[in-house]
Write a sequence for this structure.
């Protein structure tokens, strides 16, 4: 249950449980915020207003009162960016594996 005396909650780093401390935010909205954050990497007030479970007029006073913040630059990549980086690294590793295999065959041919 939300309280009116909560400290600033950084929407860009908060857990589901932390998000639920924000007035009017329950499980469904907290999950929607986390999903949107995973997709975008970081959020701002306009992103929260795009979540249809809470009226737009609720968010501005929460920002004005310092209940929620949108700290950026924390180096938290989006899930989409992280997956893309992993896929790129997998390609590099596969290419290195092929190069190693070729070198091993060359070495074997010299030994014969």
């Amino acid at each position: 249950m939300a309280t009116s005396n909560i400290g600033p909650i950084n929407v860009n780093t908060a857990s589901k449980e932390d998000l639920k401390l924000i007035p009017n935010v329950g499980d469904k909205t907290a999950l929607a915020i986390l999903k949107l954050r995973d997709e975008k990497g970081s959020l701002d007030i306009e992103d929260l207003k795009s979540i249809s479970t809470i009226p737009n007029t609720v968010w501005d006073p929460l920002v004005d009162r310092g209940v929620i913040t949108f700290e950026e630059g924390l180096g938290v990549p989006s899930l989409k960016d992280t997956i893309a980086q992993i896929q790129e690294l997998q390609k590099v590793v596969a290419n290195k594996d092929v190069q190693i295999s070729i070198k091993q065959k060359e070495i074997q041919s010299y030994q014969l």
User: Anything to note?
Assistant: The CA atoms of residues 19 and 25 lie 7 Å apart.
